[in-house]
Amino acid sequence: MQACQYNGSSYAWATVGSGGGGGVMTKIASVTLTAAAPTITISNIPGTYSKLVIDGVISSGYNASYMMLINGDTAADYNWSNIVLTGNGNAPNNQAANADTGIKEICHTQVNSPASPTPCTFSISIPFYANTTFPRNVIGVSTGFSTTGYTRTETLSGTWLNTSNAITSVTFQLDGSLNLAVGSSVNVYGVQ
To answer: 71: domain CATH number?
Structure first.
């Protein structure tokens, strides 16, 4: 692959990313719901990349908060926090939890009725996801809509405290009992 590089005095084309490294992104898996379902799970994630990037668009058609589980772990093995901004000019607010049962508030939708299903989109990065020496940190951003029609943006950080296992699966679901809507989709990429 060629990239334009600056050497301090001029620009020149150079070969980058040879040998399979250097930030090459590979799609590992993609799931799009064709019927409503309670979860989207991506399994069998290989431990051969330096980090995971997870992009998604999900909806339920209701006021809903969405969460992520790692390796199906529902124990109190997660810490998380977020900062929420809305387009109406209100001051930012934040939420946080320690020893929780998932990384919550991955994204959030607020709608006035089930007839107006608004999605939220998110992008999550998990550096060193295959490491079993330290807890794994999750970094993310998402956007959705508030009940008043304003955009709602969240920045997220979270930690999976389990150090026994590499991350091999991720599950997205509502923080409650509703189903994810048809068309909800998650893509998982590995970065060299």
So the answer is: 2.60.120
Tell me if 95 is assigned to some domain: yes
Residue 7 forms part of a structural domain: no
* Alpha carbon distance 23, 19 (integer Å): 11
- Asked if 39 and 173 count as a contact pair (C-beta separation under 8 A), the reply is yes
Residue 65 vs residues 25, 47, 58, 143, 144: alpha-carbon distances, Å: 29, 29, 10, 12, 11
Q: Within a domain: residue 13? A: no
Domains in the chain, number = 1
pLDDT tens for each residue of 19-53:
445 578 999 999 999 999 999 999 999 999 999 99
Q: Tell me the pLDDT of the chain averaged across its residues.
A: 86
Taking alpha carbons only, the member of 142, 148, 138 closest to residue 119 is 142
Q: Exposed, middle or buried: residue 91 (CB in 10 Å: 0-12, 13-18, 19+)? A: exposed
Is 46 among the domain residues? Answer: yes
Which residue range is the domain that position 43 belongs to? Answer: 20-191
How many CB atoms within 10 Å of residue 135? 15
135 CB contacts (<8 Å, ≥6 apart)?
A: 159, 160, 161, 162, 163
